[in-house]
Structures are given as structure tokens and as C-alpha cells.
Amino acid sequence: MVKGVPKTHNKISRELVGEPVEIIDGKRAVVRLKTTDIMKVDDKGLVHGGFTFGLADYAAMLAVNHPYVVLYKANVKFVKPVKVGDVLTAIAEVANVKDKYYQVEVNVYKNKEKVFTGEFTCIVLDHHVLDK
Ligand SMILES: CC(C)(COP(=O)(O)OP(=O)(O)OC[C@H]1O[C@@H](n2cnc3c(N)ncnc32)[C@H](O)[C@@H]1OP(=O)(O)O)[C@@H](O)C(=O)NCCC(=O)NCCS
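Above: the input record for the complex with coenzyme A. Below: its predicted structure, written as C-alpha cells.
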């Protein structure tokens, strides 16, 4: 059961990008993803970085938690490999807000080990990005 209420990305595929655990609007979010076989890129079970990124992106969106938030840019590092079966936890924290721009720091952990770190710039629009 998630602590907090998701206000954005409500139709997202949680089996691909994770389940929200905790949301504090405009401040912080925690999202957990159990990696599965469909995420692997080879016979050794290496997980495609796009899924780790997707988890981190979703956590950034939920840290802002506004219906009209979108991801604008990201600067990321994949620091350790992820293998099928690993359970990942993304912790996203809003570091700075300037006008419509939200700077969100996201770290992803496998147990206590950091596997990914990134800085996400999110924009809160005054309308849905697909509406004129
Ligand atoms: C985020 C977004 C709404 C910003 O649009 P906007 O408010 O009209 O932005 P602006 O026209 O002020 O441009 C913002 C930046 O994009 C850059 N930009 C605009 N068009 C560009 C293009 N064709 N190529 C490269 N950069 C471009 C501008 O130079 C500006 O850069 P800066 O931040 O370094 O100053 C728009 O870029 C967008 O819709 N992006 C898609 C968001 C998305 O779908 N995210 C994934 C789903 S959550």
C-alpha cells in the first residue's frame, strides 16, 4: 500500500517501471521495481538500462506529483549492472525549484548498493503537454 496519492502518470505500466511506495508531493518519492525476464538483453540476464531509467524517471515524476509534469532532460550514470530478479528501489528528491523547473535527484539501489544516479529536470506545465 502506497503512502501518498499519485497525481500523475496514472496509466503507466507499473510492471515495467515500478510500484510507488511513498510519495510526498513536491519533495520526495520512493518506487520499487522487481526486474523480470522480459527486461533482459542477453543469456546472462543483464537488464536493459532503459528499465532502470524508466524507474528513475517515474520516481522523479512522483516526487513532483503534479498532473501536468513532464520530463525535460536528464543527466544520468549507470554505475553497477542489474540482473533479472534484482529488486530495485528508486529514491527521488526534489533538490531545487525555479519557476516551472524542478531539479530532481534520483538514486536507484539494489539492496544497499547504488546502481544508478541521475539528475532529472522536470517541467510543470499549466496544461497537459498534448493539449494546445
Ligand atoms: C518540455 C516542453 C513542454 C518545453 O516546451 P516549452 O516550454 O515550449 O519550451 P521552450 O520553447 O521554452 O524550450 C525549452 C528548451 O527546449 C529547447 N528546444 C526547443 N525546441 C528544440 C528542438 N527542436 N531541439 C532542441 N532543443 C529544443 C529550447 O532551446 C530550450 O532550451 P533551454 O532549456 O536550454 O533554454 C517541450 O520541450 C516538450 O513538450 N517536451 C516533451 C516532454 C515529454 O514528452 N516528456 C516525456 C513524457 S513525461
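Notes for the reader.
Residues 49-64 form the longest helix (16 residues).
The helical segments are 14-17, 49-64.
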